[in-house]
Amino acid sequence: MFTARYNRKHPFGMQNWNGRPTIDEALYPYFHSKGSYKDLYNYSNPEVDKLLDDGRREADLQKRKAIYGRVQKIIADTGPVVIPYHRPYMAAVYKSVQGFEIHPIRWIDARRTWIA
Q1: Which CATH number do you get for residue 38?
Q2: Cβ atoms of 33 and 116 closer than 8 Å
Q3: Ramachandran sector of residue 99 (left: φ over 0; alpha: ψ -120 to 50; beta: rest)
Q4: Where would I find the beta strands (DSSP E) of the chain?
């Protein structure tokens, strides 16, 4: 109901985000002019597009970190959305549950899990 009522009907939005496993997955789909979710915010910025493309190609971790830091700064200064927080994620299991691993995007993968 919230999405139907407010999404893309106002020039500004504020919402929480779920975590993404990589910074590219957190930014490119939403803020690149060719991103798969570009219609969510209707954001287009040629400098951000170039930086996001550069970030995907950069192998050096420190350079990549600087690129995505610049993207985040630009979006914070010019973007159409404020993301005040990311929802925290916690998981707990009994001591008898063995092999359970927390997945980066919170999927439950119990293929290697067993009860001791």
Answers
A1: 3.10.105.10
A2: no
A3: left
A4: 13-14, 81-82, 97-98, 114-115
